[in-house]
């Protein structure tokens, strides 16, 4: 018998008398997410499960939890607990994970249609944040400083002449492509050489939900990428006045790999992880004396700059791979600037 209790006035108790066999809805839900999202949403489900069984020791495993027993009253109680403990954005992300698991339970035939729809209809937690509209965007000077830090010659070993290391060239391409194509850190980490089309100057990106999108590579990022590829792969087919073609043998070759001590690439290594991308950017920010930022801030800067340059919201949405235009609109800084400009026109009669 499995039981969980929720802290609501009637102290609802749900019992599953006959444990079922087969996969847990949470396992199926998490399996279809990208690795980075999988970690986040598993943590969200663990939090929800812990709210349901507050005294459990050890904490309940979300992939062994009886999600099919969830009902509308449970969802409302969880929402109330999340709204009390977390910022509204975090609470809504956890509710999104809950809805995803409930849908899997319904599709597996473990929940009745009415039960599923009533439980999944739990309202989002309302809230707003002054920083949400703009976030942390990097200025052009900060991007330049980051790339210059990557390309600053260093001595690989004591007594050696300073050189731009392969690791530095890799990191410059990582920053340029991360900003220039607005990629998520896991999208950056898992790029293959074969995802690049140097003739059309574009990259095929596999984003959330295994959705593919094609993103143009702007000139600066393209040149950083070309310089990096010159050391990442050994054979580039070059024609004098024609675009460069990559040899098909490199199609399944990871684009960004770790570097050995001394700054040389480990050419046989697997792709960098999303966490490694985070550490690379953190290290380069410190070297460039740039205020700390996350990999997602490169993406936020990309979308904001696209909109500042007059790109249509729907075009920016497609380039960023957002499922909803509402998400893209959250990166739009133009409204904040309009408010600043309007306020600057006020005439304050102070002659001090």
What are the key terms here?
two-stranded antiparallel ribbon; three-stranded antiparallel β-sheet; 2 domains; mainly alpha; globular; 14 helices; single chain; 352 residues; hpI Integrase, Chain A
Mean pLDDT: 83
The percentage helix is 40-55%
* Beta-strand percentage range: 5-15%
Number of helices: 14
Explained architecture:
With 352 residues, the protein is mostly helical. The protein has two domains: 2-120, no CATH class; 140-333, hpI Integrase, Chain A. The protein is 47% helix and 7% strand. It is built from 14 helices and seven strands. It has helices spanning 25-31, 35-52, 72-85, 88-107, 113-120, 140-150, 166-180, 185-189, 219-232, 274-287, 295-308, 313-320, 325-329, 334-344; strands spanning 2-5, 13-16, 196-197, 202-206, 212-216, 236-237, 245-246. Strands 3-4-5 form a three-stranded antiparallel beta sheet. It has a two-stranded antiparallel ribbon with strand order 1-2. The longest helix is centred in the N-terminal third of the chain and has 20 residues, at 88-107. It is globular, with a radius of gyration of 25 Å.
């Amino acid at each position: 018998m499995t039981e969980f209790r929720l802290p609501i006035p009637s102290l609802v108790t749900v019992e599953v008398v006959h444990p079922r066999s087969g996969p847990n809805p949470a396992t199926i839900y998490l399996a279809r997410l990208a690795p980075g999202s999988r970690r986040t949403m598993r943590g969200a489900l663990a939090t929800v499960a812990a709210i349901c069984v507050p005294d459990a020791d050890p904490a309940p495993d979300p992939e062994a939890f009886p999600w099919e027993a969830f009902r509308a009253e449970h969802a409302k109680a969880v929402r109330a607990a999340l709204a009390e403990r977390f910022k509204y954005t975090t609470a809504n992300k956890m509710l999104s994970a809950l809805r995803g698991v409930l849908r899997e339970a319904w599709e597996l035939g473990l929940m009745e249609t009415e039960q599923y729809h009533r439980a999944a209809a739990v309202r989002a937690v309302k809230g707003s944040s002054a920083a949400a509209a703009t976030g942390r965007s990097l200025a052009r000077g900060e991007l330049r400083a980051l790339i210059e830090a990557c390309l600053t010659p260093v001595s690989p070993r004591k007594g050696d002449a300073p050189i731009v290391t392969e690791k530095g060239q890799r990191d410059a391409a990582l920053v340029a492509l991360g900003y220039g194509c607005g990629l998520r850190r896991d999208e950056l980490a898992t790029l293959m050489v074969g995802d690049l089309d140097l003739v059309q100057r574009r990259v095929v990106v596999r984003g959330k939900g295994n959705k593919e999108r094609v993103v143009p590579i702007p000139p600066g990022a393209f040149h950083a990428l070309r310089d990096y590829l010159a050391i990442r792969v050994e054979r580039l087919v070059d024609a004098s006045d024609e675009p460069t073609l990559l040899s098909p043998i490199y199609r399944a070759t990871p684009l960004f790999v770790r570097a050995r001590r001394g700054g040389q690439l480990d050419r046989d290594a697997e792709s960098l992880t999303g966490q490694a991308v985070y550490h690379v950017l953190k290290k380069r920010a410190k070297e460039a004396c740039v205020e700390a930022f996350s990999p997602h801030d490169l993406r936020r800067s990309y979308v904001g700059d696209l909109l500042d340059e007059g790109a249509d919201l729907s075009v920016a949405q497609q380039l960023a791979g957002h499922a909803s235009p509402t998400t893209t609109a959250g990166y739009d800084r133009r409204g904040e600037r309009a408010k600043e400009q309007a306020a600057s026109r006020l005439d304050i009669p102070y002659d001090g």
